[in-house]
């Protein structure tokens, strides 16, 4: 049964990824006093983009054409590594360090695509995306430090049984969750780290790397953005969220959590403005510091 639930969960997560992003965009627009797009707008955009003519810059190479597929493949592997049923099927890859590597690999291909486009904006976006990644990775390691200290391993498995046997104060648990929220906003490219709605050359990051894409290449890049948004949210809920007895109930709970989290992220984006690029290192350092503080409180045993 676990294999069946896992496969259905992966298919639903990928298929509903544009819907979850649509929830965030709609909530953000309503909070800003705008009507905003439909929650299904992402599907219409993808269908329209997919049927447009596919072109490539004159001086680009095979890297430019291959990058969208490689980025999307890495993100699909991440979605497949998440135990949607609440338990991990046997011999199923589910190591969190592998997920971190796949996130870095996706960022690597996005940066390569930006530089290979032979455009000024592509190189600018590639530089910003890769620079930001050097701060996201240690912040994410720190955010999950508490979970590793509790479980003693790096497998993506629910911690509910472990927490039932141990007494853990609310403060370190809350700090770990807060640290991951900071990382989530950065990894998903949302405000205050990045604005996915802008094409201003002075502010855009990820959008600059895909500016030269069109047709099916652009559609693949848009799907990858939506899948990454879904994956990083689901990754946190697998560790931090409650677990139910039934695998199918756990899958349904994960989908509900994704919907609620998408709406919450839309609300957060409507309450803040984008930070200046040179303020982002301090933001990521704060995320890492909060995660390290949670880890220290658990390891020291001061609040248990």
How are the secondary structure elements laid out?
Blueprint: H1 2-15, H2 17-31, H3 41-50, H4 62-81, H5 96-116, H6 120-143, H7 145-151, H8 160-165, H9 170-187, H10 206-209, H11 215-240, H12 247-271, H13 280-300
Helix pairs in contact: 1-12, 2-11, 2-12, 3-11, 4-5, 4-11, 5-6, 6-9, 6-13, 7-13, 9-11, 9-13, 11-12
What report would you give on this structure?
With 304 residues, the chain is mainly α. It has one domain. It contains 13 helices and no strands. Helix 4 (62-81) packs parallel to helix 11 (215-240). The model has no long low-confidence stretch (mean pLDDT 83).
Keywords:
304 residues; single chain; 13 helices; mainly alpha
What is this structure, in a nutshell?
The protein is an all-alpha fold. 69% of the residues lie in helices and 0% in strands.
Helix share bin? 55-70%
Write down how many β-strands occur, each being a DSSP E stretch of 2 or more residues: 0
Mean pLDDT metric: 83
How many DSSP helices?
Answer: 13
